[in-house]
Amino acid sequence: MLFETTAAHEALRKEIRTFAETEVKPIAFSLDQNNEFPDDIVKEMGKRGWMGLPYPKEYGGAGLDVISYAIAVEELSRIDGGVGVILSAHTSLGTYPIAAFGNEAQKKKYLVPLAKGEKLGAFGLTEENAGSDAGGTETTAVDKGDYYLLNGGKIFITNAPKADIYVVFAVTTPDIGTKGISAFIVERGWKGFDFGDHYDKLGIRSSTTAELIFNDVKVPKENLLGKEGQGFKIAMATLDGGRIGIASQALGIAQGAYDNALDYAKERIQFGQPIGVHQGISFKLADMATKLRASRYLIYSAAEMKENHEPYSMEAAMAKMYASDAAVEITNEALQVFGGSGYLKGMDVERAFRDAKITTIYEGTNEIQRVVIAAHLLGRLTK
Ligand code: CAA
Asked: Does the pLDDT value for residue 1 go beyond 50?
């Protein structure tokens, strides 16, 4: 698998980097301090066509490829990992299942405003007793003729409560495991659909994360996504793409921390020389740059495979696992290069250090990524 970014990819990178540096960077510290969602930034990204990058123009998208989407998440995350995940969760978790599994009416009603950035999307899979074991879903959707009655709750939902449209997974046929789970499109504002408090997180604090609470929510029959019982496969296929997004977020956070550390290593004088001259620092930079390059190749090659409609589940898991582990290592070392000043609030590297950690946890912990990779290598040996 070979790939090369095109001039158009690099032009998009430049455009998004400029936006992130001029519009996001000046407010990133205050968003982090105040646990504040950047409404205006998200609206502006919609106007610029970035909230629907990989979706067809006929449905309101930009008609670009998956690598363009990965570059967008990377460049936003280079400045603010929270802003990166807002775009990522919207694009690859909230919008993708409707684009890939929705019927024409659902696409017209939901995909178009999502891809245009007029509405924000989210994905409701995780529950208190169904985290890594997503098949343990307990939320129920009972067929009542014209509608399904939805009851239960979801936790850790990125973009909630800001999102307008939620793809929610619920059990329609109990006691048959993953084949009893179905997917639904649920709108904010429907009676019985409420939210818990916005979580106070270690990092990515400019993104909102909240619980979803369903209390006798009537979901119209036409909002069933795909077929009854297809929900788990829709969730898994969606997460394959989502993992490219999180890998890109990790890469961006790490690249930002590295760029800052590199500049600092050239400027900071100790023992009469820039600290980058000392091998203790230069070796750190060499390791960081190598890991960034490896992450980028893993991500763009998985993105290219998705774009070419090749099976890419294992490659997306590898990219997510590697890039997120690397991001934790790189941000840690970048902070170390800064020494005591890197430990201070208001330093970008301090925020990056906190933002990086979540990438090893969400959209499948890195332990689950290893389960996915090993299952592809070995096949299923049990069950
Ligand atoms: N695409 C399509 N179908 C898939 C699939 C994929 N990638 N992976 C599995 N399936 C199918 C299987 O083929 C199988 O189908 P059959 O029953 O027809 O054979 C079915 O799904 C069940 O598969 P498994 O038996 O492998 O399922 P499992 O219960 O053993 O679970 C798992 C597998 C990989 C552990 C899965 O539960 C998983 O990915 N867990 C992690 C969940 C996760 O990533 N959560 C993230 C939440 S979202 C989030 O974090 C967002 C955010 O905040 C930003």
From this structure: no
290 to each of 221, 227, 293, 321, how far by Cα in Å? 51, 45, 5, 16
Ligand 1 pocket, 89 CB below 6 A? Answer: yes
Task: Return the active site residues.
Answer: 363
**What is the pTM for the complete model shown?**
0.97
Structure tokens, 330: 């790189």
Q: How many CB atoms within 10 Å of residue 133?
A: 10
Minimum CA distance residue for ligand 1 atom 10: 233
Q: What is the pLDDT of residues 87-132, one digit of tens each?
A: 999 999 999 999 999 999 999 999 999 999 999 999 999 999 999 9
DSSP SS3 for 197:
strand
Q: Strands, E, within 249-370: which ranges? A: 269-270, 273-274
Question: Across the chain, where does the E strand assignment appear?
Answer: 121-124, 140-143, 147-158, 165-171, 181-187, 193-198, 209-220, 224-225, 269-270, 273-274
DSSP structure string for 65-117:
-HHHHHHHHHHHHHH-HHHHHHHHIIIIIIIHHHHHH--HHHIIIIIHHHHTT
Integer distance in angstroms from the first to the last C-alpha of the chain?
33
Cβ–ligand 1 contact at 163 (below 6 Å): no
Atom of ligand 1 nearest to the CA of 135: 29
Q: In the predicted model, what is the mean pLDDT of residues 293-312?
A: 96
At 382, the pLDDT band (50, 70, 90 cuts) reads low
The amino acid sitting at 361 is I
**Cβ(293)–Cβ(262) under 8 Å?**
no
* Cα–Cα distance measured from residue 100 to residue 103, given in angstroms and rounded to the nearest whole number: 9
Q: Is the CB of 91 under 6 A from ligand 1?
A: no
Q: Are strands 273-274 and 269-270 parallel, antiparallel or unpaired?
A: antiparallel
Question: What is the token pair recorded at 99?
Answer: 């684009």
Distance of CA 332 to the CA centre of its chain: 21
The answer to whether the CB of 160 is under 6 A from ligand 1 is no
Percent of the chain with pLDDT over 70: 98
* CA atoms within a 13 Å half-sphere pointing along the CA-CB vector of 337: 35
Q: 309: pLDDT confidence band, cut at 50, 70 and 90?
A: very high
Query: Rounded CA gap, 184 and 168, in Å?
Result: 5
Which pLDDT does position 7 carry in this prediction?
96
